[in-house]
């Protein structure tokens, strides 16, 4: 008998996809210096509310469409092959790139604890970053490990995900409370609260990264065949996950602010890690590193699950080779997982800078999928609430896309990312035009 995912399983997969490496690095590299703590909280909260509006349209989709592939198969069935392919192609980019991003973060964590232990076997320099065999091997071992867990079955990988996520949440809560008790509260009051002024630009600067910060909430429609409860309950899981994800982002930002001014945080390699180490000692730092490892691991696992489901669905529609849609005796898309893993094993050889250029496009890929789902919901809307929510969802998605593409935007894609985007679009066009694609 098939084992189905519980609400807790689904919650863990979604949170794992939302919280990754970025949540632990952004306080020092972006949030504090650009928006402080209050304007950052406003920007993240506004972003989460916008994503929840989009999620309402996802619920509309899930109520009438329970095929795996989510946005891809939904768009394919309603708007046709070309539009379906656009959604699937860009969504695949959004999911795919997060796996090597998190895998290559593992060596960085090890280096923060043990120094340059992995900097052996120098290979070459790519985009100003030295690539070492030691770092590549660690990244590859992590990918292989999670591929193995997923091939063993989604229920098996979801149990691992549950343990990882609850470890993450508990540790972040413990560190936050302990920092609040032990740190000098005058630091956060003097630097971020007593002289606070609302600044719309600062709020929007944080809001602009919303598609990146919350990509992964849409994991639920990819897993529609893996759970038995209603779309309404699945939607509630997504809302709770988004709310807790927002709290975790803000908690990590405030932890850093308890120790440093924005100027000091900017000068540190890992401001959050230094803040915890200075105030809570070695034990606190170890707990933070465990939480970071949990976040990275859950991201790899969550996006590997979502990517395999999406690839399997695209294969079922004969756009990818049918082998990718074949299930093994555990009901797992083994060939899809192997393909994802092979691509993820290659990525670390290009260096982390190149991976980040590509990952920057993930927000665009996700935003395009959001726009299509909201647009279809708008076409199907039968009552006032649905019309308003779908119109808002479409407008918000379009805003996300413009924020990424307009040159003067605080979230605009860099030149390298735009070149990579052009290559991805060209590959998609070639694949669609000359790939001998057949209608379902």
Keywords for this structure?
440 residues, Amino acid/polyamine transporter I, 20 helices, 75% helix, disordered C terminus, Amino acid permease family protein, transmembrane transporter activity, membrane, transmembrane helix
Biggest sheet architecture = 2 strands, antiparallel
**Quick one: overall form?**
globular
Given as residue ranges, the uncertain stretches (5+ residues, pLDDT < 50) are: 436-440
The total domain count is 1
**CATH topology description:** Amino acid/polyamine transporter I
Taken as a percent bin, the fraction of beta residues is: under 5%
Radius of gyration, in Å, reads 21 Å
Total number of strands: 2
CATH architectural name: Up-down Bundle
Going across the major beta sheet, what is the strand order? 1-2
Structural class: mainly alpha
Mean pLDDT: 89
Tally of contiguous helical segments: 20
Give the N-terminus to C-terminus distance in angstroms: 29 Å
SSE topology string: HHHHHHEEHHHHHHHHHHHHHH
Helical amount among residues, as a percent range? over 70%
CATH class: Mainly Alpha
């Amino acid at each position: 008998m098939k084992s189905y995912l519980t609400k807790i399983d689904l919650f863990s997969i979604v949170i794992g996809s939302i919280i990754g490496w970025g949540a632990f690095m952004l306080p020092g590299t972006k949030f504090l210096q650009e928006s402080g703590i209050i304007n950052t909280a406003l920007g993240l909260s506004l972003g989460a509310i916008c994503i929840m509006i989009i999620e309402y349209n996802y619920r509309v989709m899930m109520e009438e469409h329970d095929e795996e592939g989510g946005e891809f198969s939904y768009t394919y069935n309603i708007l046709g092959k070309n539009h379906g392919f656009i959604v699937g192609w860009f969504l695949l980019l959004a999911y795919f790139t997060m796996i090597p991003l998190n895998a290559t973060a593992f060596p960085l964590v090890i280096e923060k604890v043990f120094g340059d232990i992995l900097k052996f076997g120098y290979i070459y320099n790519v985009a100003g970053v030295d690539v070492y065999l030691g770092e590549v091997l660690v990244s590859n071992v992590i990918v292989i490990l999670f591929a193995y867990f997923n091939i063993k079955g989604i229920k098996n990988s979801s149990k691992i995900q549950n343990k990882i996520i609850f470890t993450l949440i508990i540790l972040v809560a413990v560190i936050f409370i302990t920092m609040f008790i032990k740190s000098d509260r005058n630091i956060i009051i003097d630097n971020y609260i007593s002289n606070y002024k609302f600044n719309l630009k600062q709020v929007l600067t944080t809001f602009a990264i919303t598609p990146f910060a919350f990509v992964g909430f849409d994991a639920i429609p990819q897993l529609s065949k893996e759970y038995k409860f209603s779309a309404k309950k699945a939607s509630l899981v997504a809302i709770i996950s988004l709310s807790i994800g927002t709290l975790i982002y803000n908690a990590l930002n405030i932890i850093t602010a308890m120790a440093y001014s924005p100027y000091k945080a900017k000068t540190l390699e890992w401001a959050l890690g230094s803040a915890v180490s200075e105030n809570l000692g070695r034990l606190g730092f170890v707990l933070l590193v465990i939480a970071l490892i949990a976040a990275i691991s859950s991201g790899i696992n969550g996006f590997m699950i979502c990517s395999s489901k999406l690839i399997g669905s695209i294969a079922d529609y004969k756009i990818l080779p049918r082998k990718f849609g074949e299930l093994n005796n555990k009901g797992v898309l083994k060939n899809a997982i192997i393909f994802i893993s092979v691509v993820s094993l290659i990525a670390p050889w290009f260096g982390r800078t190149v991976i980040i250029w590509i990952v920057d496009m993930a927000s665009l890929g996700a935003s395009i999928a959001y726009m299509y789902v909201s647009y279809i919901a708008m076409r199907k809307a039968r009552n006032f609430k649905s019309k308003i929510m779908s119109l808002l969802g479409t407008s918000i998605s379009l805003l996300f896309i413009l924020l990424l593409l307009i040159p003067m935007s605080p979230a605009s894609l860099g030149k390298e990312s735009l070149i990579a985007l052009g290559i991805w679009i060209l590959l998609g066009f070639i694949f669609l035009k000359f790939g001998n694609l057949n209608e379902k």
